[in-house]
Amino acid sequence: MKFRNVAACAAGVLFLAVSAVAQTSSLEGDVKGPDGQPLKGALVKIDRTDIKGHYQVKTDKKGHYFHAGLPLGTYDITLEVDGKEVDKIKKVRSRLGDPVVNNFDLQQSKQQAEARQAAMQKAAQSGSTKDIPKEVERGMSPEEKAAMEKAIKAQSEAMKKNKELNDAFNGGMEALKTKSYDAAVASFEKARELDATQNVIWANLAEAYMGQGGAKSGPEQQAIYEKGLQAYQKALELKPDDAAFHNNYALALVKTKKIQEAQAELGKAAQLDPPNAGRYYYNLGAVLVNSGQNEAAGEAFKKAIDTDPNYADAQYQYGIYLISKAQVTADGKINAVPGTKEAFEKYLALKSDGPFAESAKQMLTSMGEQLQTSYKNPEAKKDTKKVTKKK
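Now predict its structure.
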């Protein structure tokens, strides 16, 4: 009798054990790669979400995965290829009996992602999710829908900001062309507020301020010029290797009588852009002449021709600077300082029909020089052929 009780108790334990084993489930599915073919060796991670639990299995040569013995529950199934998570199926509810099938098709997923991206771009342009195709929307989880709506809103705002930025910048450029400096300043200031990281905005804002200041005088002019200098400095902070920025900043410094600083900036421009170094020094000389600083202008023109001896206009302007130092004798003869004649002759050799040609000839005549009927570049290759003299 006692034995039967023990047996009955054992039978009860066995029944409970069988019941526990019976409360398991399984998941399976097929995995296809981006080429539509079965994907072998892909890792399928199975994570229980209602309580903690993690399982994983790899696909066989047919791209199939199967995992049995899973407790009944809710799972997220993640596909990992080459160490990267490439797809995920969320909130899969397992069941007793037949396995729950969840397939992965990376080719289809790619197409769906492209469709989603296209739909998002279209929705961003319209600013509404109503343009998203229903078949695309149906394949998304609530979290994905929320994320997409957030992304659409952000993209829409970015597109709107970009349009405002482009409109402001283009408006400033048009105003600069017509020398409408007040309008240019207003447009570039708006562009700067929208995006302060663009060096080209700061550079053109500086140019607009310098143009605006040119129409003013006294303290008001100096205050506007200072804004222009600050804008150039900001442009150079963002792009310090731009020779044109250094050149334009130097010309602006000249307007505020900061000659030494201007020369330093032009030196940087020349170092950054050696082929155009002569042009940078010539620009400095031109500005200095216009501001009545002839000595500094002469030095600038000399630097221009030292850098590029074939810079014709610099040769002429240097000649003009030197002629200003000539002495006139009592009988009206002009005694030019050394280098004057050579500068004018060099200009004529380089530009015999240039805009300053007649002036250069007049200067040479006034110095008592006999004009040649033609001028040749002394650095040009000499013709070794003999010329037959006409009798």
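Residues 155-240 form a domain with the Serine Threonine Protein Phosphatase 5, Tetratricopeptide repeat fold (CATH 1.25.40.10).
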